[in-house]
Write a structure and sequence with these properties.
Largest interface: A-B, 44 and 51 residues
Number of helices of chain A: 5
Radius of gyration of chain B: 13 Å
Order of helices and strands of chain B: EEHEHEHEH
Number of helices of chain B: 4
Structural class of chain B: alpha/beta
Structural class of chain A: alpha+beta
Helix content of chain A: 25-40%
Largest sheet of chain B: 5 strands, mixed
Shape of chain B: globular
Strand content of chain A: 25-35%
Strand order of the largest sheet of chain B: 1-2-3-4-5
Helix content of chain B: 25-40%
Largest sheet of chain A: 9 strands, antiparallel
Oligomer: heterodimer
Radius of gyration of chain A: 22 Å
Strand content of chain B: 25-35%
Distance between the termini of chain A: 96 Å
Shape of chain A: globular
Order of helices and strands of chain A: EHEEHEEEEEHEHEH
Distance between the termini of chain B: 47 Å
Chain lengths: 290, 118
């Protein structure tokens, strides 16, 4: 039997030699045996561990960490979808370009997102500092796994609250052929989180209000995006589906990397660390003459 | 109207394995097609499902997410998932997303089916 799918959500990517799969003119060495597909410029290159991308950026809990996908985490696997209709007047590409450019500005005020200098582009690492309630904070990061003109995906490192991917996308809502011929369909913007809590502590935290906080977080973010784009007042529809109810106890040891615990310990140790730094910087006292 | 972008063809191999030949684009929109192919392979009693990516032309992050859903579905039925025919580019994406830790990647179909046949 042969099955078919459609319609496509496969936009052309940037027209670099890598993205098109065709070697640049005069580049005789670039003759791959199988031409690169058109998604090539949209994916990050393979990394084993995250590295610091900016001089001076506080990258505690990020540098040296491995990336974790939904296959790796500990808790139940969830697919959480947040969708909103921003009307026909805003094209999907414009919505995503704006989101990429101003990503940090749409976050709730209790949290900060620090992208690298090149912003949301494949392979970049951004730092996060997220208020998780009760005065607790979580300092961690995300890796830009994929980015094209109508979507981008972030992947989390060890120690993040969850192991998984967050995909932001926009597309025209499907409509009848007759309707499409006369006018544009509304643009639907979506955030989709495919995740497992990274360790038992996070799993507990998610069950005790973490999921609700995350829902609020993305609803606020998407509402801010819609407002910036000049869309009429929107309603963000939330859907949460359990993909796998099993917990992966073999990954319980990931609690060692827990960034929530580490952030708390780093905050407690901060005064001592500051004194130690000051002592190291201070000039040595002059030697006494006998 | 947009042309179909994915085709999946299911081949039964012996009593215990099925190969799903994937051709075209793999995106979130491919989910109904892949799940339909899964159901066909499952009805035939396959214990090992082998994805043939030789005809893969494009895959975005939605496609990778869909493969995770497929993997979970197979694991719940205690079925093994394997793959072959990945170009260097897509093999690297499997490694980057760490999907290769759950889906065994082989160089060719014969290797992917070797221990099933024996």
């Amino acid at each position: 039997m042969t099955n078919h799918a459609g319609p496509p959500d496969t936009p052309p990517t940037e027209q670099s030699p890598r993205a098109t799969g065709h070697p640049a003119e005069g580049d005789a060495a670039a003759t791959p045996t199988r031409p690169l597909p058109r998604d090539a410029g949209s994916w990050a290159s393979k990394v084993d561990r995250l590295t610091e991308t900016r001089v001076g950026a506080p990258a505690a809990n990020v540098v040296g960490r491995r990336l974790t996908g939904p296959v790796q985490g500990f808790g139940k696997m969830w697919r959480k979808t947040y969708r909103m209709n921003i009307g026909a007047g805003i094209a999907p590409r414009r919505a995503i370009a704006t989101w990429k450019e101003h990503f940090a500005e749409f976050w709730p005020q209790t949290s900060t997102f620090e992208p690298s200098l090149t912003g949301i582009s494949p392979g970049e690492v951004a730092l996060l500092d997220v208020g998780i309630g009760g005065g607790a904070r979580l300092s961690t990061g995300v890796f830009v796994l994929y980015a094209d003109e109508v979507s981008f995906t972030l992947m989390t490192p060890q120690g993040h609250m969850f192991a998984g991917w967050i995909t932001f996308s926009a597309e025209r809502a499907p409509g009848s052929d007759a309707h499409q011929a006369t006018q544009a369909q509304p643009t639907v913007v979506q955030t989709e989180v495919l995740m497992r809590a990274n360790d038992p502590l996070y799993e507990l935290a998610m069950a005790l209000g973490g999921h609700r906080k995350e829902d609020e977080f993305w609803v606020q973010t998407m509402t801010a995006l819609a407002k910036y784009l000049g869309a009429p007042p929107v309603e963000v529809h939330t859907r949460m589906v359990c993909i796998d109810p099993r917990r992966q106890w073999g990954n319980a040891g990931a609690v060692w990397h827990n960034s929530m615990v580490r952030t708390a310990l780093q905050a407690m140790a901060a005064p001592v660390t500051a004194i130690a730094h000051r002592r190291r910087r201070a000039p040595a006292p002059p030697a006494r003459r006998s | 109207m947009a042309e179909p972008t994915t085709t999946m063809h299911v081949r039964q191999v012996g009593d215990r394995a099925a190969v799903i030949d994937i051709k075209g684009d793999v995106t979130a929109a491919s989910e109904p097609v892949l799940m339909s192919a899964y159901e066909q392979a499952d009805r035939q009693g396959a214990r090992r499902l082998v994805l043939n990516f030789r005809g893969l032309e494009y895959m975005n992050s939605g496609g990778i997410g869909m493969l995770v859903t497929f993997l979970i579905r197979a694991n719940r039925q205690r079925q093994e998932l394997a793959a072959f025919g990945l170009s260097d580019h897509y093999r690297e994406i499997f490694e980057l997303t760490r999907l290769d830790e759950a889906i065994t990647i082989y160089d060719d179909e014969r290797s992917a089916l070797s221990d099933v046949a024996s």
